[in-house]
């Protein structure tokens, strides 16, 4: 078995902890900057890992990017589940809680950070083809969670029984990614507020 390239990790540092730190640093940086504009050195410097040890944790930069996407998906799905389940008897309030947290995050970082998946999506024409399916899978996971929330709203009579939950969930993420991009451009949460309010309104006015 061929040895990994690069300097081995510091013996005082746990392998899994260091790898997780690198992935978290990648998540933070790649919500602000494009994957193709971020150098490995920037990630390593953020965590305090020697340059030569990157290849001990990842095959190459693309492998790192794919693992960051997977880690972000785990984080985002957990956040969605928590928000959407915050008020089981009023599912749309759970969606409103998610929107509120997202707005707080955008304002906290002064609209420098966006959605990591959306950022990668904007670079898709210059990314390796291997990124396409993982990015699509993230949106599929998020749509599935929101569709479950809308089904719960239907069962409680909060929205019309004729609402196509899957289609509406997919529509939400299409619009939400655009709202985040517009918010970054305008340096204002107004696009996020307008879209989310409009989305919920069109669900509830058909009852």
Describe this structure in words.
By secondary structure, the protein is an all-alpha fold. The protein has a domain at 65-204: Tetracycline Repressor, domain 2. It is 67% helix and 0% strand.
How do the strands and helices of this protein lay out in sequence?
Layout: H1 15-30, H2 40-47, H3 54-57, H4 61-84, H5 91-108, H6 116-122, H7 132-155, H8 165-186, H9 190-204
Helix pairs in contact: 1-2, 1-4, 4-5, 4-7, 5-7, 5-9, 7-8, 8-9
Key descriptive features of the protein:
207 residues; mainly alpha; Tetracycline Repressor, domain 2; 9 helices; elongated
Q: Nutshell version of this structure?
A:
With 207 residues, the chain is mainly α. It has helices at residues 15-30, 40-47, 54-57, 61-84, 91-108, 116-122, 132-155, 165-186, 190-204. It has a domain at 65-204: Tetracycline Repressor, domain 2.
Helix/strand structural class:
mainly alpha
Strand content: under 5%
How many β strands by DSSP?
0
- Helix count from the secondary structure assignment: 9
The named CATH superfamily of the domain at 65-204: Tetracycline Repressor, domain 2
Which fold name fills CATH's third level, the topology of the domain at 65-204?
Answer: Tetracycline Repressor, domain 2
Helical residue percent?
55-70%
Report the major sheet: none
C-alpha end-to-end distance: 64 Å
Low-confidence stretches: 1-11
Q: What CATH architecture label of the domain at 65-204 applies?
A: Orthogonal Bundle
Order of helices and strands: HHHHHHHHH
Mean pLDDT: 92
Task: Categorize the overall geometry.
Answer: elongated
Radius of gyration: 19 Å
> Which CATH class of the domain at 65-204 applies here?
Mainly Alpha
């Amino acid at each position: 078995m061929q040895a990994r390239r690069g300097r081995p990790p510091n013996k005082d540092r746990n392998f899994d902890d260091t790898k997780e730190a690198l992935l978290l640093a990648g998540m933070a940086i790649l919500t602000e900057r494009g994957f193709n504009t971020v150098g490995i050195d920037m990630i390593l410097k953020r965590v305090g890992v020697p340059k030569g040890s990157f290849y001990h944790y990842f095959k190459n930069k693309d492998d790192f990017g794919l693992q960051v996407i997977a880690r972000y998906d785990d984080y985002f799905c957990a956040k969605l589940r928590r928000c959407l389940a915050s008020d089981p008897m009023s599912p749309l309030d759970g969606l409103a809680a998610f929107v509120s947290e997202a707005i707080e995050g955008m304002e906290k970082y002064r609209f420098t950070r966006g959605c990591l998946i959306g950022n990668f999506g904007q670079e898709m024409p210059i990314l390796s083809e291997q990124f396409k399916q993982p990015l699509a899978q993230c949106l599929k996971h998020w749509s599935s969670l929101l569709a479950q929330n809308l089904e719960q709203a239907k069962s409680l009579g909060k929205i019309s029984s004729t609402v196509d939950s899957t289609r509406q969930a997919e529509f939400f993420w299409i619009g939400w990614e655009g709202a985040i991009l517009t918010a970054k451009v305008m340096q204002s949460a107004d696009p996020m507020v307008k879209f989310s309010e409009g989305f919920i309104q069109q669900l509830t006015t058909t009852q």
